[in-house]
From TrEMBL:
One of its GO terms (biological process) is peptide transport. Its main location: membrane. PANTHER family: ATPASE AAA-TYPE CORE DOMAIN-CONTAINING PROTEIN, OLIGOPEPTIDE TRANSPORT ATP-BINDING PROTEIN APPD. This is ABC transporter ATP-binding protein. Transmembrane segments: none annotated. Residues 5-249 form the ABC transporter domain. Keywords: ATP-binding, Cell inner membrane, Cell membrane, Membrane, Nucleotide-binding, Translocase, Transport. It is a peripheral membrane protein. The keyword Translocase applies. GO terms for molecular function: ATP binding; ATP hydrolysis activity. It is found in: Cell inner membrane. Belongs to the ABC transporter superfamily.
Amino acid sequence: MSDIAKASGVVVSYRTSRGALRALDGADLAVRAGETLAVVGESGSGKSTLGMAMGRVLPAEAEHEAGRIEVDGTDVFAAGAETLRALRRDKLGFVFQNPMTALDPTMRVGRQVARAMPGRPGDGEIAAQLTRAELPDPARVMRAYPHELSGGMAQRVVIAIAIARSPRLLIADEPTASLDASIREKVMATLRRLRDESGASLLVLSHDLRLMARHADRVAVMYGGRVVEIGPSAQVLEHPAHPYTRALLAAASGSEQPGERLEPIAGTPPTLMGRCEACSFAPRCAFSRDKCSKVRPEPRKVAGREVICHFAEEVLESSKEAPQ
Ligand SMILES: Nc1ncnc2c1ncn2[C@@H]1O[C@H](COP(=O)(O)OP(=O)(O)OP(=O)(O)O)[C@@H](O)[C@H]1O
């Protein structure tokens, strides 16, 4: 299967008063055409930065230091303003966590949807677009202002806008985190149905491991600004080969509700002020040895997935013996 987007060795830092904070420390991620790929990890692991980097919609204080991202043949960091605008308009769709900040509070929903659609759509076409995102009573929704909608409906309006030009890649950053637990599953199902129908790829960034296990074809696990394990959902989540994936799963297998933030593992994720020259998970890792705090692990293939761990085979074996 071909890749619609590919990030290789991406380094992005944020300028802060304490110096350059390295949010991506050589992140690699390929999104295949037509797949749903979930990126999971604790808060601060770099998910949002990677998602924003895909469309070069990073905040002004972010600096791209190294690496390359290609989306549907466009080198996003080398692209000029016009190419980038066309890429964002025609090939990419974004859905962020809070629909109320994505929508213009002063404009009726119908007009906002119309502006995202190609040409000059009539009311019937705008209503049809809202129906695609499974909004009931589209005629009423079109006349409404965003504050008159529930959170779930507002997120569906954002989805209708994001898919208005049939993007090749839809990037959804915590699309259900601000919603009630009862509608998370439904909104996720809508996103997946739209992906199925359009043949687009869906990249979902999420804390919600269980929700992603139900919806994603593949899972990428991020830690310390790198993708530490990526592979088919069933394989990665049933028999993880990275100790961090294992720890995340152990944390998610407890009593938490779907959508709750992952609170795993003793210790805190690293705040990198430069390139990590070792394994950034070593201080929290039950499998850690001398080598882990001395040698930076590089991606390698282990049992059908890519993993960044010196002792992945050992971790995999113990996952098979004591599955999460
Ligand atoms: N605008 C910013 N300025 C400074 N530091 C930032 C900025 N945005 C993110 N960071 C830092 O970059 C690192 C990665 O953040 P990022 O938001 O990409 O992670 P995340 O996995 O998406 O977390 P969350 O789920 O909480 O959004 C974190 O240490 C974060 O504090």
